[in-house]
Design brief:
This protein has four helices and five strands; from the N terminus they run αβαββαββα. Bound molecules: iron/sulfur cluster (2 copies).
Length: 168
């Protein structure tokens, strides 16, 4: 009986030697994530470089893990960060609390906060787990200007852009 088991085990080992390996050699080789995957957040900008975040804190209110902290401040035309009245002076996400549910993304009225496909989050200290606005904000797109910007008066009066297709 023991020899039977041994032979069966060896046969299985021999069979698997000729099968295509399923192991991914991470980190050299990376598996593509699914389209609905929710990874590290980032804060988006408009094409002209203005920040999409208007500091409304709806994401913080929607977060079930109380992981987001937002402190808003007033925009002026001399020092403008985002369209409309206010911008996020402080924006932080505690990645140790986050459960990557995506509720913040769903709640955001300007599509500022989005969860991307980066899952390589590691830190060795609790303080490093607090991702600041500087860490989360996208780089200025080509042709755009960094924030704060000096903008003409009466142009950026709306905090939430007009949607071309409200059912979108
Ligand atoms: S993904 Fe969920 S838990 Fe994480 S910050 Fe957003 S709302 Fe909070
Ligand atoms: S990310 Fe969106 S929901 Fe959160 S404060 Fe900014 S604009 Fe408001």
């Amino acid at each position: 009986m023991m020899l039977d088991d041994l032979a069966r085990g060896l046969a299985t080992t021999l069979k698997m030697m000729f099968e295509k390996p399923v192991t991914i050699q991470y980190p050299e080789e990376k598996r593509r994530v699914r389209t609905r995957f929710k990874g590290r957040h980032h804060l988006q900008r408009y094409e002209n470089g203005l920040e999409k975040c208007i500091g409304c804190s709806l994401c913080a209110a929607a977060c079930p893990a109380d992981a987001i902290f937002v402190e808003a401040a007033e925009n002026t035309d001399e020092e403008r960060y985002s369209p409309g009245e206010r911008y996020a002076r402080v924006y932080e996400i505690n990645m140790l609390r986050c459960i990557f549910c995506g509720y913040c993304q769903d709640a955001c009225p300007t599509e500022a906060i989005v969860l991307g496909d980066n899952y390589e989050l590691s830190f060795t200290d609790r303080r490093q787990a607090i991702y600041t606005k500087e860490m989360l904000l996208d780089p200025v797109p080509p042709g755009g200007q960094p924030t704060p910007q000096r903008t003409p008066s009466g142009v950026y009066t709306r905090s939430v852009p007009v949607m071309k297709d409200p059912s979108d």
